[in-house]
Amino acid sequence: MADVVVEQGRLARAVSPRKKGASLRNVLGRKSTVAFFLTLPLILLITMLVLYPAFYSLYLATLNKAMTKFVGLGNFTFLFKRETFWMVVKQSCIFAITAVIFKALIGFIVAHFVHNIPGKKQRKWRGMLLVPWVIPPAMSTLAWLWLFDPSYSAFNYTLSFFGVGPIPWLGDTFWARFSVILVNVWYGAPFFLIMYLAALKSVPDQLYEAASIDGANWWQKIWHITLPMMRNIIAITTLFSLIVTFANFDIVRILTSGGPLDRTHLFATWAFQVGIQSSDIPLGACVSLFMVPILAVAAIFILRDVNKRGNEA
Amino acid sequence: MSTLAIDKAGPSRKVKLRSMSRDRTWALRWSYFFLILFAIFFLTPPVYMLITSLKSSAEISAATNPWWVFHPTLSNYVELLTSNQFLRFFWNSSMISIIVVIVTMLISIPAAFALARMKFWGSATLATGVFLTYLIPDSLLFIPLFKMLAVIQDFTGITLLNRWYVLVFIYPTLTVPFCTWIMIGYFASIPKELDEAALIDGASWLQTLTRIFIPVALPGLIAATIFAFTVSWAQFLYPLVFTTSIDQLVLPVGITTTLIKGDVFNWGQIMTGALLGAAPPLVIYAFLMDYYIAGLTAGATKG
User: Fold this and answer.
1) Could you tell me if B277 lies within 8 Å of chain A, comparing CB atoms?
2) Which keywords does the record carry (chain B) (predicted)?
3) Contact list, B133 vs chain A (CB under 8 Å)
4) N or C: which end of chain A has fewer CB within 10 A?
5) Domain map (residue ranges) of chain B
């Protein structure tokens, strides 16, 4: 491919060596020039609206509230002394880890059930089960907010028939955390389901047949065939979901706004409250920067897995 | 079918095979049983949205059985679809999403083409960089972006904050990396012979892209378009931070901020609004499910 282009260039030069237009056309037609212009909008977008703000955030985090004075690491040391900050760290970790584990488990289990269903019906079930992922989270969280309503909760109405007293879904620390995680699991599990279903389909049936001839039970089949075959997809999906869940904003913002008493705040929602609502931009930037280490670790692992996959293929 | 065929083989094997097929039918029954349970869990909120949207305020506050509509009414829908405010949100959301889809495609298709086919200095690094950008969440950038917009606004005098069109510049940061990434995957899977033949025939790079790559990778293009549309339609954090006036809001923000007035929750209308807001992605999903799922799985599987 490259040879063809080079030859074309040589040809043009040989025919009309002193024409200015030809050499300009030559430069414009060169592969690297074309490639540069094709990727230029992408590079501009990433540098101006992703990389620059990211570094700008680092700079902002070193200013005082009025953004007039350089305070160095003052904001960071201030945060370290605040109890709420440590609570947010703890809550973000609990939220992300619990939610991802349950999403992965439910996704894995349901993927097996869907995989069992034959042919055409499988499509219908898959289509139905992916609905939570399709609805914009801000909209579906409103439905959950209504389901959790303190006085008209449809859940409490149903539970009252089983003699379970009204549960303060969003009013009590434990239940508020539970509800927030539940909604996140509800929203994210279909993603795992689809990924695992695709992975399950790529496992050759012969492996299972051979295993059943050898007398393996279902647990041994899962442990010795399914899991090793799906390892890569499981790793990528989990790490990816960890990033998204850790940085989640919509669900907590709409469901509890961080309450009761900041007991459900995550980094994103607390950064919003501090940085935008209380207009302490440097402190807000500082809070959201604390997400970076965890995101970076997850990103490095994802990149390693993706590259590994690329090399295998 | 296979049991029937082997039935004739001999009585000793018949028993074993029957039990195996019985195992299978039981496995299927259990699968259906659990799938129904999970489907109830997954579909309760949307169904409850629909139920509530058909109720009048009087019925909602009467606290009758919440799972049933006794006096179905479309008044919530009529009220919202005739309210200028709600239509304005819908209009803003649609405009932003459509423009963002176009901008995303204009940026990511050429870039993906270059990254997939032209090995140039730094192309591998750039591809990795694109993937990494995809992993940067919106909640990390909203504060510096807000401040940036404020600074630019002060400096140039162009109003940027509290204008819906500024979102058109911001959203591509969320859509372009992923779309570029999956388009690289689709483009890379096109056999090299195809574009080499075109080049030998004298086609320019642009012609190769528009005549060969785009038609051949059309499924990937549709998947990327759907992704860009759903992401920009669902985005909540950026419009919440950057826009405040009622006429500049997009649907998710508009519903959460204007329909919830203080402590008075007009749940019938909120659920109707949420359902109408969820409708466009749901309709697209219903018709183009396979593309949707292809796009979803391509992100991690195409490397």
Assistant:
1) yes
2) Cell membrane, Membrane, Transmembrane, Transmembrane helix, Transport
3) 46, 50
4) C
5) 24-61, 74-298
Q: Residue B162 contacts by C-beta under 8 Å, 6 or more apart in sequence?
A: B242, B243, B244, B245, B248
Q: Are A218 and A133 in contact (CB under 8 A)?
A: no
B contacts of A33 (beta carbons < 8 Å): none
Asked if the Cβ–Cβ distance from B137 to A41 is below 8 Å, we say no
Q: Which of A122, A99, A238 is nearest to B35 (CA)?
A: A122
| Secondary structure element (H or E) that encloses residue A275, with its range | none
State the pTM of this model: 0.85
Count of other CB atoms within 10 angstroms of residue A278: 12
Question: Which value, to the nearest 10 degrees, does the dihedral of the CA atoms of residues B135, B137, B143, B146 take?
Answer: 90
Minimal CA separation from B285 to chain A, in Å: 7
Asked whether the beta carbons of A194 and B285 are under 8 A apart, the reply is: no
Per-residue pLDDT of chain A (313 residues; tens, 9 = 90+): 444 444 444 444 444 444 455 565 565 567 778 888 888 899 999 988 888 998 898 888 888 777 777 887 888 888 888 888 898 888 899 999 999 999 999 999 898 888 888 878 888 888 888 899 889 999 999 999 888 888 778 888 888 888 777 888 888 888 888 999 999 999 999 999 988 888 888 888 888 888 888 888 878 888 888 888 888 888 888 888 888 898 889 899 888 887 788 888 888 999 998 888 888 888 888 888 888 888 888 888 877 776 665 544 4
Say which CATH architecture domain B74-298 belongs to.
Orthogonal Bundle (1.10)
Rounded Cα gap, residues B37 and B35, in angstroms = 5
Number of helices (H), then strands (E), belonging to chain B: the values are 17, 2
What is the CB neighbour count within 10 angstroms for residue A13? 14
First to last CA, chain A: 22
Instruction: Select from B104, B115, B139 the residue whose CB has the most chain A CBs within 10 Å, as the one to mutate to test that interface.
Output: B139
* Percent helix, percent strand, percent coil in chain B, to nearest 5: 80, 0, 20
From A39, A135, A303, residue closest to B282, measured CB to CB = A135
Count of residues making up chain A: 313
* Yes or no, beta carbons of A198 and B297 under 8 Å apart: yes
